[in-house]
Write a structure and sequence with these properties.
single chain, 300 residues, mainly alpha, 0% strand
């Protein structure tokens, strides 16, 4: 107990949280890389099963796939071990130390010299910084742990959406339920506010989606955005949803215009909205009260 008391000291806790966050960031890199591929494999398997079922004679028993083929296809967050995509070199434990290994290897594979994306240490550093700040802000409390979980999820969703324009239900839906459970004790907002926030968050973008589709015949966003805003509402309450929507829209519009003007990003090329919602959610979590107190009176 004395050890835990020492770790909870204000001068120590942020550093402990930083170390934890760096390790979680390393795991988030695995989630970001593998989860979309796992989803794609699952979709293909379901399509293959449907196709096989449609060709099967009526009344015939389904034939399970061979065990060897099933084992060969194992792919999840733990199996197989991480390896270099260029040469297949298995990443050793000493090559998988957050930040330190990337710096020691100078951003290259130790076997073939292939460049390792700088996004890996960036995600690790961001996860560590988030954890340290949450620990410093909330101290040794459930709120600190909740803030870390919320922000780590936002970080993973941001990277996945940028890569694949997907916001996986495997993250957004558990995040929504976690927000409601955490607010049973009013950790961030009262439960009533959290429940209304979850419903209002989903319906707000659902209405925008259908309004845009009826007006233009096109889909302006995906259903994952609805679920993400619902999860944010479950964590932060309905009162912060207008701020989240406003911040995400302003930042998204500014970045979208810059991409079109300076990067020659085609107007018809979709821009993921999830990263802007996630960033706005983090801002509202940590600084929402201050923003509301200082800026909303100015804006009238």
């Amino acid at each position: 107990m004395e050890v835990f008391g020492w770790l909870a000291q204000p001068a120590v806790l942020p550093w402990v949280a930083l170390a934890l966050g760096l390790c979680i960031g390393s795991f988030l890199n695995v989630v970001i890389h593998r989860l979309p591929k796992m989803m794609e494999r699952e979709w293909r398997e379901q399509c293959a099963e449907l196709e096989a079922g449609s060709r099967k004679p009526q009344g015939a028993s389904p034939v399970p796939p061979p065990l060897a083929q099933k084992e060969q296809g194992r792919y999840n967050l733990l199996v197989p071990r991480s390896a270099c995509p260029g040469c297949g070199h298995r990443i050793a434990a000493l090559e998988n130390i957050p930040l330190a290994s990337w710096l020691a290897l100078r951003g290259k594979c130790s076997a073939c010299g292939m460049k390792i994306s700088a996004r890996y240490p960036i995600v690790e550093a961001a996860a560590g910084a988030i954890a340290a700040y949450a620990a410093w802000r909330y101290g040794a409390s459930l709120a600190a742990l909740g803030a870390m979980l919320f922000c780590w999820s936002m970080l993973a969703l941001t990277a996945i959406d940028l890569d694949s324009q997907l916001l996986p239900d495997d993250i957004t839906l558990p995040l929504l339920w976690a927000g409601l459970l955490l607010n049973l004790g009013s950790t961030f907002v009262p439960l009533r506010s959290a429940m209304i926030g979850a419903v209002a968050g989903y319906l707000a973008l659902w209405l925008v989606y259908w309004g845009f589709k009826l007006a233009t015949g096109k889909e302006g966003m995906g259903y994952g955005d609805f679920k993400l805003l619902a999860a944010i509402g479950a964590w932060l309450g309905w009162q912060k949803l207008p701020m989240v929507i406003l911040l995400s829209s302003v930042v998204g519009a500014a970045i979208g215009i810059c991409l079109i003007v300076f990067a020659r990003h085609g107007r018809e090329t979709p821009i993921p909205f999830g990263p802007y919602l996630a960033a706005a959610g983090v801002i509202a979590l940590f600084w929402g009260e201050e923003i509301a107190r200082r800026w909303l009176p100015i804006l009238g």
